[in-house]
Amino acid sequence: MIDIGANVGSTSVLLGDTFQRAILFEPNPVAAARSRENLCLNKLSFEIEEIALSDVSGTVEFEDIGGTSSTNRVVVGFRSSANTRIVPRITFDQHLLDRNLTLPSGTIVKIDVEGHENAVLRGMQNFLRVGRPRLVMFEYLQRTNLSETRQIFDQVGYVVFRLCEHGPVLAELQVKPLQNLFACPIELQTEFGLMES
C-alpha cells in the first residue's frame, strides 16, 4: 500500500494486517513521528518517507497549523495565512527511480493531500501507466479540479468511480465534493462490478 498524506498513519494501521508492505508519505515532522509511534505500537514495520509528493521535485511551503493537524497542506497556487515550513518534495515516479523500487500490480494507493491530489497524480503517471496499481483512492474536495483529475486518469487508462448504496458506479461529471473517489485500471472495471450511474 502507498499511503500519501499519511498524517499519523491511521489508514495504514487500520489496514495493516491486509498488506505485507506499506510506504507512508508525510511531510509534517510531528505527524510523521506520531506515525512511527503508531506503527511501532501495532508492530508494523512499514516505511515512512518524511517528504511531500507533488508533480516536481525540490522544496515547497507546507502549512504548519500545529501538531498533527490533518488540514495541513502544501502551499502551491495560493497564499496561506497559517505558519508554514519548507519541506522537501518529489514526484512519486522519481522516488521509485531514486530507490530502484518496483511495486506489484496489486498495490493500493491512498491520496489525501488536502487539494494537492492532481499534482500528486501528475507526478505518478508513469507508475499508473506501467505499474498498474489495482486501486487508487483519493479525496475529492471543493477546490479539486475533478475535470483535470479525470483527464489524468483517462491518459493512463483508469476509470473513476464512487461508492453508493448499491455498490460502485462510474463517477458522473457532477459529483458532490467532500468524499473519497476511486480509480481502477480500465481492464479491471468489470472485476470491480462497475456500472453506469
Walk me through what this model shows.
This protein is an alpha/beta fold. It has one domain (2-188): 3-Layer(aba) Sandwich (Rossmann fold). Helix content is 25%, strand content 26%. The protein is built from six helices and eleven strands. It has helices at 10-14, 29-41, 92-99, 117-122, 125-131, 146-155, and strands spanning 2-4, 23-25, 47-49, 52-53, 58-63, 84-90, 108-111, 135-140, 158-164, 167-170, 179-185. Strands 3-2-1-7-8-11-9-10 form an eight-stranded mixed beta sheet, sandwiched between helices. A three-stranded mixed beta sheet has the order 4-6-5. The longest helix is centred in the first third of the chain and has 13 residues, at 29-41. The protein is globular, with a radius of gyration of 16 Å. The model has no long low-confidence stretch (mean pLDDT 94).
Question: Care to give the gist of this entry?
Answer:
With 197 residues, the protein is α/β, with parallel strands linked by helices.
Mean pLDDT, to the nearest integer, reads 94
CATH superfamily: Vaccinia Virus protein VP39
Under the CATH scheme, the architecture is: 3-Layer(aba) Sandwich
Strand order, sheet with most strands:
3-2-1-7-8-11-9-10
Largest sheet: 8 strands, mixed
How far do the termini sit from each other? 28 Å
Stretches with pLDDT under 50, minimum 5 residues: none
Q: List the domain count as a whole number.
A: 1
CATH names the topology as Rossmann fold
